[in-house]
Amino acid sequence: MENIISRHRNLTVLAVVLFAQILGLAVQVKQGTDRGTSRLIRIWAVSAITPFAKGVVHSSAWFADTWHNYVYLRTVRVQNEKLRDEIGRMRLEQVRLAQDASQARRLQTLLGFKEQFISQTMAAQVISTTGSEFSRGVYIDKGSRDGIKPDMPVITSDGIVGKVLRVYPTSSLVLEINDPSSGAGVILEKSRLQGILKGSPSGGTFVANIMADESIERGERILSSGGDRVYPKGLPVGTVARISPAGTFLNVEVKPAAQLNRLEEVLVITKIVEKSPEVTDQNGPVRATDILAQRLPSVPPPKPTAPAATPQAGKPAVATPPAKPNGEPAAKPVPPPETGEQTAVEKKKPVATAAEKNASKSVPDAAKPENPAKDTPR
Amino acid sequence: MAAPTFSRERFEVYRFAVPVAVGVPLAALLLQSFLPLHLPVVAIFDLPLLVTIYFGVGRRNPISGLLTGCVIGLIQDSLTHQPIGLYGIAKTVVGYGASSLGVKIDVDNPGSRLLMTFGFYLLHQLIYFAVARGLAGEPLYWRWGHQALAGVANALLGLVLYKLLDRLRQGT
What we know:
The structure holds 2 protein chains of 2 kinds.
Chain A: H1 2-7, H2 9-31, H3 36-71, H4 76-111, E1 115-129, E2 137-140, E3 153-155, E4 160-167, E5 172-176, E6 183-188, E7 194-199, E8 205-208, E9 221-224, E10 236-246, E11 249-256, E12 265-275, H5 288-295, H6 342-346, H7 348-362, H8 372-375
Antiparallel strand pairs in A: 1-2, 1-12, 2-5, 3-4, 3-12, 4-5, 6-7, 6-9, 7-8, 8-11, 9-10, 10-11
Chain B: E1 14-16, H1 18-38, H2 47-59, H3 62-79, H4 86-104, H5 110-134, H6 144-165, E2 169-171
């Protein structure tokens, strides 16, 4: 026996090493999680590799920052002007969205919904990848010492990236949404279909479990549904890139919103608060159209006695608000507006009160809660 | 006609200084995990595999080759989220194969290096797939086109890398 072993020494060593690894692999597969030696090996390996990766990433970021912030400022002025214009447009849009959001909050309060709010995030730098085609993940420079825990969602400003899978003292492994073993609850924005976002072995993403008879449009936005208890509801996930039938289900390929192959900085959501929505604006929302309707001269109500406001040349118009469709008397005349958006903010309170009255009237009686105190907007 | 016989003594056995033997695999692992951040296409390369082949062939000692492959593979496994041992097993076999091949044929000329790297890349991927699917139940599927292309790319990179590493070896 000894003679055989010594004669085939190389093969014997190969068999022993392979057997040991297969045994270790079987134990890990059986246990399902990292324990004992395998956990220790990972800590050693990650501790050996990540400091170098951190050093390289941070020093290159420093050089890039210096270059872009102090040297290369060629198009900054043009960009500034474009951004100012965009801010102006977005402010107008914000007024409209605030109205819609406030209305949604009121309705959600009535229905007793609970919302998830991102209350705390932590910025982290991506320092390296897993280095494998078969494992889609990245390492970030924050770990358990910074308060990172497993299963925390990781996002960018574009959309979700993945979740924290393993946490080490100074770094963490983030499993990306395009890994075959990942999954996220999603909802299609327009069709309101729910499904599970999964990664494919080739690095793509697709939504599983959508029946073939459902209608989905290419380019439709996909948001997180919150059903997986990891990602907060409503975060952008991606858009529908391709739809093809696959038996009784649809094969819905998704283009992720976040650029998963070019990640530099990410946000780790460290705290999610779940609470009932509150209507914080006591005076109610203001629609941009309402403000404009009050500023501009309008057609007088069909009462013969009502005075019509006619703007005179050289004098600002005293706008009379249009009559309400339900026959409610018009609100008080608004004094002539000054220029700029400041006026819109100043006029917000009286207008909003009238709008709030209308809004509360529009709620059907069946939807009203039993407790009348809850119906009062806070 | 009798087949030509090759002996180990016909080819030079190379040794590597400890800093090279430790530093080169570590550098390969670091680059493998760092470069795809900025150049996603680099993920097609397997630098730790190329280093395993190079050290195995250069040392021409099967036990040394398989142990080198085993250690490099296990560290590579540790950086992924998959069970430890998938890369370890594949690289152990490749390390053993490369050093056994180095004993028998001359692998210093570019042509044989190209073919050898291509062949070992495919062998590595086949073993990885077999173990990952069969033992660990990982959802992978084999794509011939992709694997062949990756094999060619790795073989070409191997030519350049081996030329650089040749400067660090010491003949005995």
